[in-house]
Specification:
The complex is a heterotrimer of chains A (562), B (198) and C (349). Chain A is an all-alpha fold and 562 residues long. Chain A is built from 16 helices and no strands. Chain A starts with 22 loop residues before the first helix and ends in a 10-residue tail after the last helix. In chain C, β6 and β7 form a beta hairpin. Classes of the chains: A mainly alpha (562), B mainly alpha (198), C alpha+beta (349).
Chain lengths: 562, 198, 349
């Protein structure tokens, strides 16, 4: 029975002032924990750490590319940097941050006390962490060429046969394969956990049609992870067999195929980017309604669109291979499927627009990040539609136009929603409110930096600049744009610094936030901030998609209209 | 604030906690199926494309006996599940042991086949595309059988100490699901390697 | 200046103007300016087809952008919480079947149209038939240079591709077969065609149909290793007479001038011959570029630097100074030997 009296709320004790166990015991508690909230925070911390590292890698690259024929880093170092930057951002930032939010919020939102398999949850986190450590150990242990450290330098998609022993001696490629294999097992574990939790641990009354969209979309994402990470795992096992047991999977000298690596990789790689962005959609689908003061417009269509995206995204992978010389029929087919998947994706923008329409929009920091996301994701989607036309991709594939496109989706789309989520749930997780002014500085600095870098990045692509080059010729018209792109990085760094300072300071000194600072409607806001270890004293019972709206508006509850 | 009593009609009660194990195992099966899918695709793609070495037709014999053993082990494990559902721990241990025996027979038979292939026919993982794809695909399946056998043996040890009782029937069922999956994969591998692409 | 929504929109507006202006400015290079390899300065039939398709796609997506952007901007401004708000929640609308149907059907129609436009161009470029008189070239990608074989003519050259200009009325295109000797590469000269990859153990195919003479630049567009960045492309489109003259010269064996006898001797008795070919001599190596007519090229090391005596000398002495990570070894010869060899190479016109 869910009402204001029946939820027992422990007295608010900010975590920073809780009675202190000795440091050793506190650290031990975190290492052995199986609590989804602590594991979620560890995933978030891990992801943020690697966000900073990946960002530093990008910064060094942009310094090198600010002017032509620069000598800031050697070609070998640059090639390691772009490989590690891409690999880090996808596997050690994107996946952990998203699993972190899912871990923390999904049980709370469905009225459960923990995930379905708490020990598996812990195992999965530590496997992911181990994978990252293995990957980064390569800097020390990889035995690369020319003594420049041994990080992998084969690009984040590690095309064969560049990854064969013949072309990549030493162990750097092995660290790539093994680090990601290990981290992949962790991802599969967490995905399995999320799917099982959502299917089996919902509170009474919460049918599938009454789950928050955040829960729905994370479940779809997790189901995708289950079948999509496996092709990468399989391909990496095959690569290791080639490199160590003399196998010939990708050995073109023995009749093997370089193209089959591409197929296997992109059968993973394309759905993977939907795996990354769908939780971003999930976040936007929670925040935009709350700050527009209206329910999400078209809940059922949002679910159906997400399911279609999940399904269709499995059929578009070869749009990463338009230039490899497939037949015109194959190219046309993948153009068609890629354009098709753009439809349910674009529709979601309209649903968010419909949510804001007629509302009363409050521009708190989470909403500002979400609004920026909407504009930016629109542009990102449109450049994606452009690239989906195979002839257009024949010109602009593998150029800086593509780099601009996918950073637009991943930063302009995903990172902005992640920042939104961090601000939105910071009060719930820490019990304190962040500093509004610093938040605004973060937003505007990062927005300006993002646009300086990634808007103008489309241009060198159009002017013929391919990706993954450590330097470029002067006189091709690329210099001014590269300089502007590099300058934008400064603003992004400044914005992120504001954010780090904000959260660190607010964690210790922020005003107590209360249980429900945003006047929101999903179950996590019915617990204390932070929630007690057991989440709910009594398992809630719900009758609609917005149980707290029903509580706060007993004269006009949702279940009358759903 | 007045408390509202909410009673939940049966059709609005979500799936329960007790299904966790099965749902989780199905998720694992989905992920593992995807891995096997990729190895099967590689096998089929490279069929007939080896530049040298013994051809499948020349060296592969349909492994009838070990296949019968493995398929029978699915039958014996079902009998074991029924036994423990009825609380019959002794009968359970017997059928469980039979499962292990049949699984081990499969492993030994595979080892003998591989011995012949390597030493009599010179087919290794590095000798040709056929060698690479054959040993990887069959080897991946064999690995899953070995993992299953390890788990089965541990459970047998528990059973011999009287630690497996009727209340564990659901968990036994979840484990058996894994074993059935391993069996189903063998159906696919057998068909692809010994019939389709021979 | 207050950090608020109005400022935001001014910034966005400014940004849009700047970027659009930038795109216009950057692509306003003269049509056959070799320095700027823009996809919007096409000079060959495939590049033209793609250019026209791009304009159409840009128009459609641009239109979508303007409409949706305006709606978003309108919503964000019109429906913001006012200071004088009465505190009541707005009408709780859950959806609308008609609206949702409309905004599903319209994108589907747009996508169908875009697909048909793209499919037409895909077919036109990939399934083109070649008239007799098409020049046939085989390009082989190496780490980190380009080998060009002219099978009909019986010679091999490297790094700078010469092709005859084509006439729109009576086209004489050039068909290029693409192979790779090691890892993946990609042939991208934006003004002439879209890129096509060179993949080991696979035969790919592309064609160009240049309408103007001139030099067109590009570079390898598939990461192939350490010096991917300096695997540059130069395509020299010539009139039929100039092209025939060039062909005739290429078919000749190497010049053998007496004045550089010593240099030639050093070249032919050192490791140089293991990698390089000089037609008519005992140098028959295939691992590195063919040097028979080295001096007909404007650049060396696949475009990494200009083909001058100084650079040639440096390349032989210390290739890492020009292209660190290339597979050309430092030749460990004395300065005097290097001078002699350089002198010899300078005669290979």
């Amino acid at each position: 029975m869910l009402d204001a009296d029946s939820i027992s709320k422990p007295m608010f004790v900010p975590p920073s002032e809780a009675t202190t166990l000795p440091l050793f015991d506190r650290v031990h508690e975190w290492i052995v924990t199986v609590d989804h909230k602590k594991l979620g925070l560890m995933y978030l911390g891990y992801g943020i750490l690697f966000l900073v590292i990946g960002g530093l890698e990008a910064t060094v690259m942009r310094i090198q590319l600010a002017i032509p024929h620069n000598h800031f880093v050697s070609p070998q170092a640059f090639n390691e940097l772009f490989t590690m930057h891409g690999t880090t951002m996808v596997f050690l930032v994107g996946m952990p941050l998203l699993f972190g939010f899912a871990n923390y919020m999904v049980p709370l939102m469905i009225g459960a006390r923990d995930m379905a398999f708490p020990r598996l949850n812990a195992w999965s986190f530590w496997m992911s962490a181990l994978g990252g450590i293995i990957l980064y150990f390569s800097f020390i242990g990889g035995n690369g060429l020319y003594g420049a450290g041994g990080a992998p330098d084969v690009g984040w998609f590690a095309y064969a046969p560049l990854t064969a022993r013949a072309f990549s001696p030493g162990h750097s490629t092995d660290y790539w394969a093994i680090g990601l294999l290990v981290s992949g097992f962790g991802s599969i574990g967490t995905a399995l956990n999320i799917v099982t939790t959502v299917l089996c641990m919902r509170c009474p009354g919460m049918t599938l049609g009454r789950m928050p969209l955040f829960v729905w979309l994370n479940m779809v994402m997790s189901a995708m992870v289950l079948i999509v990470i496996s092709p990468l795992t399989a391909a990496q096992i095959m690569l290791l067999i080639d490199r160590y047991l003399g196998g010939h999977f990708f050995d073109t000298q023995a009749g093997g195929s370089a193209v089959i690596w591409m197929h296997f990789f992109w059968i993973f790689g394309h759905p993977e980017v939907y795996v990354l962005i769908i939780p971003g959609f999930a976040i936007a689908s929670e925040i935009i309604p709350v700050f527009s003061r209206k329910p999400i417009f078209g809940y059922a269509i949002m679910v159906a669109a997400t399911l279609s995206i999940g399904f269709l995204s499995l059929g578009v992978w070869a749009h990463h291979m338009f230039t490899i010389g497939m037949t015109s029929y194959s190219n046309a087919f993948f153009t068609a499927t890629t354009m098709a998947v753009g439809v349910p994706t674009g529709i979601k923008i309209f649903n968010w627009l419909g949510t804001m329409w007629g509302g009363k929009i409050r521009f708190s920091i989470p909403m500002m990040f979400c609004v920026a996301f909407l504009f930016q994701f629109l542009i990102a989607g449109l450049t994606g539609i452009m690239l989906s036309a195979a002839p257009f991709d024949w010109q602009l594939g593998n150029s800086y136009f593509v780099v601009a496109h996918f950073h637009y989706v991943l930063i302009g789309g995903l990172v902005f929603t992640i920042f939104a989520a961090l601000y939105y749930w910071f009060p719930k997780i820490s019990g304190r409110m962040y500093n509004e002014t610093l938040g605004k500085w973060h937003f505007w600095l990062f927005l300006i930096g993002f646009h300086l870098t990634f808007d103008f990045m489309h241009i060198p692509g159009v002017l013929g600049m391919p990706r993954r080059i450590y330097t470029y010729e002067a006189g091709r018209g690329w210099e001014i744009w590269n300089l502007i792109i590099s300058v934008g990085v400064i603003f992004q760094i400044a914005g992120v610094l504001c954010w780090v300072v904000n959260f660190l300071w607010s964690y210790f000194k922020g005003k107590p936030a209360g249980d429900d600072p945003w006047d929101a409607w999903t179950l996590e806001w019915s617990t204390s901030s932070p929630p007690p270890d057991y989440n709910f004293a009594m398992i809630p019972v719900v009758r609609s998609r917005r149980p707290l709206w029903d509580l706060k508006h007993p004269e006009d509850p949702d279940w009358k209209y759903e | 604030m007045a408390a509202t009593t909410i009673t939940v009609p049966p059709n609005e009660m979500p799936l329960g906690h007790e299904l966790r194990g099965r749902v989780g195992m199905w998720c694992l099966i989905a992920a593992e199926s995807a891995i096997f899918c990729i190895f099967v695709v590689a096998y089929l793609y490279y069929a007939g494309k080896s530049l040298n070495g013994p051809r499948p037709r020349e060296v592969l014999e349909v492994p009838i006996r070990i296949s019968i053993a493995l398929f029978s082990s699915s039958f014996t494990i079902v009998r074991a599940e029924r036994a423990i559902e009825h609380g019959n721990s002794k009968l359970f241990a017997t059928w469980w042991f039979a499962t292990i025996f049949l699984g081990a027979f499969f492993v030994v038979g595979t080892a003998r086949e591989w011995y012949k292939l390597i030493y009599d026919h010179g087919l290794t993982i590095s000798s040709s595309l056929f060698g690479t794809t054959f040993y990887s695909l069959v080897g991946l399946h064999l690995f899953h059988v070995l993992v299953g056998l390890t788990g089965l043996t541990i459970v047998l040890v528990f059973a011999l100490f009287g630690l497996v009782r009727q209340e564990h029937a659901e968990r036994i069922g979840v484990f058996a699901l894994y074993w059935h999956f391993v069996d189903a994969v063998w159906v696919v591998v057998l068909t692809v390697v010994y019939f389709i692409a021979r | 200046m207050k950090l608020n929504l109005t400022t935001g929109f001014w910034l966005v507006g400014l940004q849009t103007v700047l970027v659009t202006g930038a795109v216009k400015a950057s692509t306003a290079a003269s049509p056959a300016d070799p320095a700027v390899p823009s996809i919007f300065s096409p000079s060959s039939t495939p590049a033209y087809s793609i250019y026209h398709l791009s304009l159409f796609v840009l128009a459609v997506t641009g239109f979508i952008f303007v409409v949706v952007f305006s709606l978003l901007a309108y919503a964000v401004i019109k429906f913001r919480l006012r200071a004088e708000d009465d505190g009541r929640e707005p009408a709780q609308i859950y959806g609308s079947n008609q609206v949702e149907l409309a905004w599903t059907v319209i994108p589907v129609l747009i996508v169908v149209v875009l697909f048909l436009a793209a499919a037409r161009v895909i077919h036109a470029i990939e399934d083109a038939k070649f008239p007799p008189g098409t020049t046939e070239i085989t390009a082989i990608g190496h780490q980190f240079w380009w080998e060009y074989q002219y099978p009909g003519q019986g010679f091999v050259t490297a790094n700078e591709l010469h092709v005859p200009v084509s006439d729109r009325e009576h086209p004489t295109p050039t068909h290029i077969t693409l192979l790779s000797a090691d890892t993946n590469h990609s042939f991208w000269v934006p003004q002439l065609a879209g890129k096509t990859d060179l993949i080991p153990n696979r035969v790919n195919s592309m064609w160009i149909d240049p309408h103007e003479t001139g030099v067109f630049v590009g570079q390898c567009a598939q990461y192939c290793g350490t010096q991917h960045a300096k695997m540059l492309l130069r395509v020299i489109v010539e009139s039929r007479e100039d092209f025939d003259k060039w062909l005739a010269n290429e078919k000749q064996p190497a010049a053998t001038l007496d004045s550089v006898r010593q240099g030639r001797h050093i070249f032919e008795t050192t490791a140089c011959v293991n990698c390089h070919t000089v037609a008519g001599t005992n140098a028959k190596g295939k691992f590195g570029p063919d040097l028979t007519h080295l001096m007909s090229r404007e650049t060396i090391a696949s475009g990494a630097t200009a083909n001058t005596q100084e650079n040639l000398r440096l390349w032989i002495k210390d290739p890492d100074a020009i292209k660190p990570g290339s597979l050309m070894p430092a030749m460990q010869m004395s300065d005097q030997e290097i001078d002699a060899v350089t002198g010899y190479l300078l005669t290979l016109h």
